[in-house]
User: What shape does this take?
Amino acid sequence: MISRLSLQGLALSRGGRRLFEGLGLELAAGEAVALTGRNGAGKTSLLRAIAGLVFTEAGSIGFGEVDPAEARASFVHFVGHQDGLKTSRTAREELEFWTRWMGGTADAAREAASMLELTPLLDLEVRRLSAGQRRRLALSRLLAAPRPLWLLDEPMSPLDAGWRARFGDIMAAHLGGGGLIVAAVHDPLPIPSRSLEIGAAEVAA
Amino acid sequence: MSRLSALLGREIVLAWGRGGGPIVTVGFYAGVATLLPLATGPEPARLAAVAPGAAWVALALASLLSLDRLFERDYEDGALDLLTLSPVPLELACAAKCLGQWIATGAPLALAAPLAAIALGAKPALAPLIFACALIGGLAFAFTGGVGAALSLGARRGGLLTAVIVLPLFVAPVIFGGGALDSFAGGLPWRPGFALLGAYAAAAVALGPLAMAAACRNALS
Assistant: This one.
């Protein structure tokens, strides 16, 4: 288990452009941070860097005492714009596969589907789902395979008001159980959280 | 293990549907094999001499068909991101993808290869060796082809780029496999060529995933 996330002096460039440098963040179990900033500021890149998908140029990413490779293999969830779902497969096949891949059980997958009210949709092909249903299917991984650190990239953008509130409850429950959340958002998170503006320093400079 | 078997099952199903799957691949193979007698002339003696080699080259080309989508779809829809967030090393995940590709398209091609060769006039006695060469060669094609597919990730017209990267890597298995078939047809020792083909496939299976995983990580970052 990981109970901390600490970023120190992080610097990142994309396509030859420096997005941010000297970025620091300390997150303890039960805390959430909302990443804000204009489009292209580097919110997604920062999430991908924490997930180990993007190389950083300077600084360090620590997960408490846990080795970063091990932390990313077993304790980190990443839900981005691209949800990893194959449109030609059914929702059930995709949920079951990703649950297994992420280390969850079939029972947990069923429970996650019923919590997100996906059960009646499971036999549909992913291409038949609406944007909001598809996002709920992607988010169901978070519950089906419990992992402490959630990296969420605008998790609620396709969700309607009712589901935004319910996903807020789900996030609150995750934090209550000692989880950590880093979410890139444009609207405020519906849970108590700190906020970190990305790219503000660069604009000032 | 359960994760890898789940991935393998998923990959076989996806490869089966990718770009029309085995039916289109085998159809393309049959098409290339049919074009050959039209180009060289229909004299049975001349055709029979080149039949095994022609069937073998057509096989290499047909193996290229669905390769370009091997990693590209996962790259575009974010599945590749998620595949890295697992205790299973990305190298093994890449190997499972290539194995799925081989089972879904390489195996049907291996079944079609002896038929095509015999239709072109090869001796029926060659059929078992053609099948074995196509099966093992298909493994080499899938794993070296995967390297090309991973390297061309993110490039526009990646399919063409994949073909250009991969075809030079197909030279060795084509020489070894074609050589074994020629020797067998001529009554010469065929085992050395066959063994070299197997060695090449083994090297591709062992080394290919390392290169694929490195190329995928590079494309993601």
Notes: The mean pLDDT of chain A is 90. DSSP finds seven helices and eight strands in chain A. Chain A touches chain B through 29 residues (CB under 8 Å). Strands of chain A lie at 4-14, 17-28, 32-36, 58-62, 76-79, 149-153, 180-184, 194-197.
